[in-house]
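Q: Structure tokens for this one, please.
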Amino acid sequence: MDLSDSFTIDPREPWVIAHNREAREVLEAFRADHPIRVPLFCNDGHTRHGFYADEINLDYRTYYTDPDVMLRVQLEAARRRRELPMYDFVLGEPPDAWDVSVDLGNAVPPGWFGCPLYYREDWVVSYQGLNLGKEACEALAMPDPRQGGILATVHRSWQYLRETYEGTLTFLGRPVRVWPGVASNGVFSLALDLRGAEIMVDMYDDPDFAHRFLGKVADALDRLETTWTDLSQGTLGPFMISDHGIDMLSQDTYEKFIVPVILTVNRRRTTTPAPDLHHCGRGAHLFPVVKKHFGLRLLHALTYPLVDIAKVRRELGEETRIHALIEDTIVQHGPPERIRETVRDLMASGAKGKGRFALMVGDMLRGTPLEHRLALYEAVKEFGGY
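A: Here is the predicted structure, written as tokens:
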């Protein structure tokens, strides 16, 4: 496979040394719970390659259908992240190992159940919900956790990558590890994909059906995660509490319909739900209920200014760690002064608290100018001090 054989920056350059020194100091202080500045984290996951797709004009139709292209893009994007001074990330140094995966993103669970998938040249794979009637939901069979729907493609690509590259391929002097890449967006999210918005009507008009259907969806996700953990010889962790779409539910409805299925699956696994909630929606009204049942150690991806993060900080207290992000379109469209003002307002709002606060960068959407990404980092350095 044709891969880069070196970084395009020299780690001995003065600007790289200065950047890495500051990044290390900021990260070490944050981890020691004595922050000197709000860190700007970069997600190093294998699905985070939008910025690199822009640089190479990636055709996503090829990325999703050719596992060799998928592997190369993930590795080169991870290399490129280590060359851009846009966040508190040590540059010019490889990790102990490079993790890659079969990446079909959020489309895996709905595609597993047969939701139509759409492959576009310039954006990630998307899908269309099924909007099933009640009878179809009742009759819906649980797919094969290795071969159902899109999982046949995932399984085949995963086996190919493992057999072809794992244990033999190195990149910039480090081994490459291949993971299955199967995850979910939560029980309610998948229920919405299958039943549509009617599931929320069901919760009022036919709660018995709603309970049964959500239980069926939870059982299916449990089987999916269990099987793929076994395939990768990993360790099955707790059934997650993160769930896209729950911001449309009231506190009572969330407590009545969602909390029980999360607790049931975790009892089956003999696990306790991890008190970490990824939530990029407007569901802050649910946080007290989540804290009541599961605790809240970490709130991840709270989006400013869509969410009043300072209010969340006051309500949940200093013990909860918050990782926030600036709303994507603000960073994408700018201008830089707007980005700077948004970061300034967030930092002055009280959201930082006493230091259990960080900003993060997600996928860095395609079409986001480099100067906007740099403006975000410079604003964090300007206004994020303690």
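A few notes: Residues 94-274 form a domain with the TIM Barrel fold (CATH 3.20.20.210). The first strand starts at residue 40 and ends at 42.
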